Amino acid sequence: MRHAFPWATLICALLALAGGVLAAPSEQAKEHYQAGLEAKQAKDYDKAILELKQALDLDKDYVDAHWVLAWVYVAKNDPQRAAAHFREVVRLGPDAEKGIAARKALERMGLPLEPPQQQASTQATPTQAASVGSQQVEQRTANMGATDAGMAFTRAHFDEMDRQIEEHRDIANSPASNLAWGEAYMLRGYIEMYLATRDRDYLRRLVRVANAVIETRDDRVAAREGRKARPLWSIAGKYTQARLVLKDAQGHDAVMLRSIRNNYNNKTVVTVQPGAQVGTFDLTTRNDVHQQHLDANVTFPDLSLDPGSPRYFKRMINDPKYVAEAGFERDRDSKPSVLLLATDIRREKRP
């Protein structure tokens, strides 16, 4: 049974994470904080830094200002200053939601909760903490390797990638496989980016893309066309098991061909024609979709209905290890079919 994903519940839960006020700053500090937050959302990071620093000058324990300023420095790829403000968030509320999240951010960055230099002077300001020991922090980041360091600061890269995808995004006309192995990861990315930044713009992107994906579901498409379908996404063609019966020269059912369970079987074409030798036939299977990935187009020449013949069709088609006669080369004369299984109906009907 398939169930619709509870997008509304997920989004409401994520929105709830954004709450929580850990300090009571002055009204003037709040004004600078709001201006800094708006500048951050507009990606004007220099203005955001200026406004948030002014808020902290008025109230050095303004947790939300430290929190947002930390993520501004993350966006600017400045791990030392970002870490300094994350540490302030932890100091001011180690068990609060933002304190726990800041601790995790430091862990992802590969930086300690309290650098050795800061242990000697616990009264160091965020600016001092950001500058002290920068050489050691830079060395630690270098030791992380390109992959880990890139994972620690990916917001700018994520936004640029998302922008490029958006330029070419056409969800309504995308095959379900693109949604499964493309948009599904982007939806997860929006959630991860929100959890890391608390920027609700990622939730808005999540809702917009998720709604577009849901509208491509089979039942939604069918409803717009005045028909019915199941609430799922068809993917990679139909997993059909088709059957084809071939008759012998007397018009009796002789050969049954069954498709092997696979995707795009509805694209398989079987051709039968007389063989080069008397009483034989050639059988060709063709599937242009599978041919793009593997050698699926196979011809079986001079097949025989006689079970005593070395070219008996059932052995030639079904048994990849079968050797018809001396000098037989399967790769040249007859490759095993990746699409069909053959049955001798005449033998099965005999009492």
Description of the structure:
It contains 17 helices and six strands. It is mainly α and 351 residues long. The strands form two sheets. Strands 1-2-6 form a three-stranded antiparallel sheet. Strand 3 (269-274) and strand 4 form a beta hairpin. Helix 2 packs antiparallel against helix 3, helix 2 (27-41) runs parallel beside helix 4 and helix 11 (176-197) runs antiparallel to helix 12. The radius of gyration is 33 Å and the shape is elongated. The two termini are 43 Å apart. The relative contact order is 0.07.
Question: How are the SSEs ordered, and which strands pair?
Answer:
Elements: H1 7-17, H2 27-41, H3 45-58, H4 63-75, H5 79-92, H6 97-109, H7 116-119, H8 126-131, H9 134-152, H10 155-168, H11 176-197, H12 201-214, H13 218-224, E1 243-247, E2 253-259, E3 269-274, E4 281-286, H14 288-291, E5 298-303, H15 313-318, H16 330-333, E6 340-344, H17 345-349
Antiparallel strand pairs: 1-2, 2-6, 3-4, 4-5
Helix pairs in contact: 2-3, 2-4, 3-4, 4-5, 5-6, 11-12
